[in-house]
Structure formats: structure tokens, C-alpha cells
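Table S2 (text version). Query chain:
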Amino acid sequence: MNNSSEPNPVTTGTDKVPVFPPSFVYPVATCHILIVAVAALGNFIVCYAIIANKSLRSSPTNLFIFSLAFSDLLTVTLAVPFDIEGLFLNWAWKHGEIMCEAWITVYLITVPTSILTLLALSVDRYKSLEDPLNRFRRFRFMTRKKALIVISVIWLYSLVFALLPVMGWRAFDEFVYEGICYFPFTEIYSTLSSCLNFVIPSLITCGIYIKIYVIARSQSSAFDKEISRQMLSTEAYSRTLRSSKEKRVYLRNVRAAKTISIFVAVFFFCWVPHSSISITANLCKSCQAKIPHEVRVVFVMFGYLNSALNPFLFAFRNRRFKKQCRKKPPAQNNQEELKT
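Corresponding C-alpha cell output:
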């Protein structure tokens, strides 16, 4: 490792630690504190409700929602408070090398976990809508067991990737340099992290939702035509009932896909600005110094805002979820999925 030059601060990506005026620090810090308060309470409620109610955790979709909520809870309780402290202390680090490494590792785990979980949700929604007339009669693409396996793989991958700098793949030996906690990443690691953990999953997720939109528009009328054809050819009352049930499942999946698409859109809005300037800074060194320090801090704050918005996007706008939150855990398991 080369320690001859100064490493880059986590918040700026330049070799000069910024000193912000109070007129910038206090409003931004206040926004950070509000984000922590709302996100911590909201995501805790979501996690608790899913754990406490069998009817909520029986759905694979809700297991993915739990993974998102837990990731957001870790972000706002273990990562954001140090950003707030840094604003007031001009990024002076008072907690030692190990805590610096832990802070950076948590940050690197939670964001990839969120976007990869959204990607898994998108694939599940797509498969649910791809063959509405036939696939529900044979098997479910995503079961509770499969969802747990996918979630475990996502968290394990994010953990391993986040630990690579700690295990030695970094530009500098120290995480704390002259009293400042740095992200001592190599350019290759930073570029790979941006591409593998954000850009590629985001593009794939976007492509999947374009296909979901096309399917939702084309199959609504096709579904009705197929049911009419079946009724005319068999004139069987049982087939009519089954077709009606399948249509209800299909329409429920359309609503669920729309809900997850809101998740994706908000995630993009919150994290694309920060990711864009990070990638630009890695690939264009001359552009790096032109990015104002204030812009970097505000864009990171937008990313944290996503953790506060997620509970409202799904759980708190869902009538059945709110009903489950207001009552004690049910005595028996209701196998029906949340009607999102």
C-alpha cells in the first residue's frame, strides 16, 4: 500500500476536509436528525409487525420488505449519527480505528442490500404477471423458503463485498488519518462497487419494470378473452370459479407490482444523485474538485431520506398492514398475501 499521499475523506472525495458555515450545518443537521427519528420509528414498527404476525411474515413479499426495513434501520441507527456528528465537528473522528471501520462497513452493506432486494422483488413481480392463467395452477415461483434463501445470499454478498477493504483491498493502511475517518478505497474497488451494487442492478430493475408495464397493459384484456373462451368451450361452473380466482390473484399482483415500482422510483430519486457524482469523481479526476462539498453532503442526505420514506410507501399506506399493527398477533396463520 502507498501511504505517501493523503487519503480521501468519506464525505468529500478530495484531499481537503471542508469546513462548513453554521448557516449550512444547522439546517442540514436538523434534516438528518428528522430523518433518523422518522426512519428509526417507522422501520422498527415494520420489522416488529412482520415478526409478530404470522399472516404478514407468511408472504415472501413481506419477507423482502422486512429485509429492506431492517437494512434501513441499520443505516439510520449505525451510520447516519456519525454523519451528523461530523457536520458539527468538521469531520473530526473521536471513536478510534475499529469504530471507523465498522461505520464504513455498515454503510457499504446497507445500500447494496436495499437495491438488490428491490431487484429480487422486481423479478418476483415479473414472474407473477408473466403467466397469469397457467403458472398459479402448478407452483409458485417465489415461496417463503426461496425468499429466505435469496435474502440470505444478498446479505452475505453485501457483507463480503463490504469487508474487502477491511481485509486489505484499500489504497491506504489506515482508516483514521490525522483524526479523520476516511474511505480509503482504491479506484477499482470504488468503480466496481458503484457498477455492481448500484448501476447494473438499477438498470436491470428498470428494464424489468418496463416489461411489467407492458405485461400489465396487454394481459388485462387478454385475460378476459381467455376466460370467456374457456367458459364457452367447457361451460363448466368450476372452471369459471377457478378463472375468477386467478383473475383476482393477477389483479392483486398488478397492485403489488405498482407498489414495488414506487419503491424503485423513490430509491432511484434518493440515491442516483449521490451515485452519479461518486462515479464521476472516480472516472474524472479533473471533475472531482469542481463538485462543491455542500452538494456531496446534501446528496448523501437524500440517500438517507430513502430509509425514512420506505415505511410510508408500503406498510403505512396498506390497510391490512395497519390493521395487523393495531391488534395482537393472530392465533392462527392466515395464508393470504398482503393485498398491496
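Notes on Table S2: The first strand starts at residue 176 and ends at 177. The chain is about 75% helix and 0% strand.
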